[in-house]
Design brief:
Layout (H helix, E strand, L loop, with lengths): L9 E8 L5 E11 L3 E6 L6 E5 L3 E9 L10 H4 L9 E2 L11
Antiparallel strand pairs: 1-2, 1-5, 2-3, 3-4, 4-6
Length: about 100
């Protein structure tokens, strides 16, 4: 897959390849698109921020835009590509929309 197949602030259901090469289903919220990867949060598992390479996504099963009032926000500084240069996973608490946090 390529960068143009994805959009920031969207929910996607995909088939992706993990580090061991196994195919996995995944539900993700897309925060940011980088040069060769995207920053996502798994919505059905651990909730960690991950750098998911576009080349690791084999198929998009479902795509859904997220309305502005329902978006999850993370400071822009965390989403910058330089912060993800040497890491694949980040633990980051994020407040949810409509919760006043």
């Amino acid at each position: 897959m390529i960068r143009n197949d994805f959009k920031e602030h969207s929910r996607i259901t995909v088939t992706w390849k993990d580090k061991e090469g196994k195919l996995r289903p995944g539900n993700f919220y897309v925060y940011a698109l980088l040069k060769d990867a995207m920053i996502v949060r798994a919505t059905d598992k651990d909730g960690l921020l991950r750098k998911l390479a576009f080349s690791d996504v084999l198929r998009v099963v479902k795509f859904q835009d997220v309305a502005p009032q329902d978006r999850y926000m993370i400071p822009d500084e965390i989403l910058k590509e330089v912060n993800w240069k040497d890491r694949d996973v980040m633990v980051r608490y994020s407040s949810s929309p409509h919760r006043g946090k």
